Amino acid sequence: MATIISVINYKGGTGKTTTVLNFGAALAKKNKKVLLFDFDCQCNLSLSKGLKKPEKHLGNILMKKATVEESVFKLDTFSIVPSVENLLDYEFAISNEPGREFITKEFLEPVKDLYDYIIIDCPPSLGLLAINSLVAADYFIVPMQTENFAFIGLDHIMSATQKVKDRMNPNLQIAGILLVKFAYRTKFSQAVISNILANEQLKDKIFDSYIRQDISVMESPAFGQTIFEYAPKSRGAKDYHAFANEFLKKYGKTKKEA
Ligand SMILES: Nc1ncnc2c1ncn2[C@@H]1O[C@H](COP(=O)(O)OP(=O)(O)O)[C@@H](O)[C@H]1O
Ligand SMILES: [Mg+2]
Q1: How far apart are CA 251 and CA 71, in angstroms?
Q2: Which residues form the domain of 13?
Q3: 179 close to ligand 1 (CB < 6 Angstrom)
Q4: Is the pLDDT higher at 195 or at 2?
């Protein structure tokens, strides 16, 4: 039975897509069956694997024109359901449907036994699609890059996720905050950490592993590759590998549970 993970933040440029791609690839390297979902109309995750204007995409699933199984691209090590540029048209089309927040939970149900991990790359907002991912998810991860005032808005994410938990998905849990482009010595990084530590709900929710700034991490999507394909010895590869280990240690299922 798959563990479903929503990678979420309310804004762009926080490392969501990079994390979905490389965390997913790190899990796949450990022989986990992984399905990645692109929920963002910017299609960065899809493009990072060379899926440009794909015929099969999330929009068709939302409209019930295709199933997840029919929409999956099976790559070497993991699978992916791409997004589409006019995803907002599809989002608009479902926006008045009764039970619209549950559409993702519903369409994932038939494939849950086919994967170990289903990871959703959220759009940079807390709109209907992000809420859909949270309603379907077991865990959410909040990547936070530490170059600017990244912690602003954290309360907003926590109150939105709490509402989803209370009203629609009692199973939802925060897995943790993942610090991205983290550099211990910089003032911004320290400021981000102290702000998180000052928050009662979140102070013990920062993952011990963090992702350092690494040019290879930035370059790899342009070559259609994960960090493990593009630069297997890089800092980025080491960091995402360590993060996947930490995640599995904290939240991985035992053979019996899976
Ligand atoms: N560890 C890293 N080192 C260097 N650049 C990074 C790192 N992580 C992400 N980036 C870059 O930061 C930018 C934003 O990351 P991205 O994952 O696209 O964020 P989001 O999906 O939240 O918008 C991208 O250009 C990406 O390549
Ligand atoms: Mg993105």
Answers
A1: 28
A2: 3-251
A3: no
A4: 2
Place of tokens 């610090």: 179
Q: Whose CA is nearest to atom 8 of ligand 1?
A: 15
In this structure, what token pair is assigned to residue 147? 């170059």
Whether 258 is in a domain gets the answer no
CA pseudo-torsion sign 131, 89, 144, 241 = positive
What is the structure's pLDDT at 148? 65
**Which amino acid is present at 30?**
K
Domain count within the chain? 1
Residues 122 and 223: their CA atoms lie apart, in Å, by 22
- The rounded Å distance from CA 185 to ligand 1 centre is 20
In this prediction, residue 256 carries a pLDDT of 65
What is the pLDDT at residue 183?
A: 80
Higher pLDDT, 146 or 211: 211
Residue 257 lies in a domain: no
127 within a domain of the structure (yes/no)? yes
Share in percent of the chain as helix, strand, coil (round to 5): 45, 15, 40
Pocket lining: 17 vs ligand 1, CB cutoff 6 Å: yes
**For ligand 1, what atom is nearest to the CA of residue 18?**
17
Cα–Cα distance measured from residue 185 to residue 219, given in angstroms and rounded to the nearest whole number:
24
pLDDT in tens, 115-133: 999 999 999 999 999 999 9
Beta bridge partners of 180: 145, 211
In a domain, 209, yes or no: yes
Q: How far apart are CA 109 and CA 136, in angstroms?
A: 9
Question: How many CB atoms lie under 10 A from the CB of residue 65?
Answer: 11
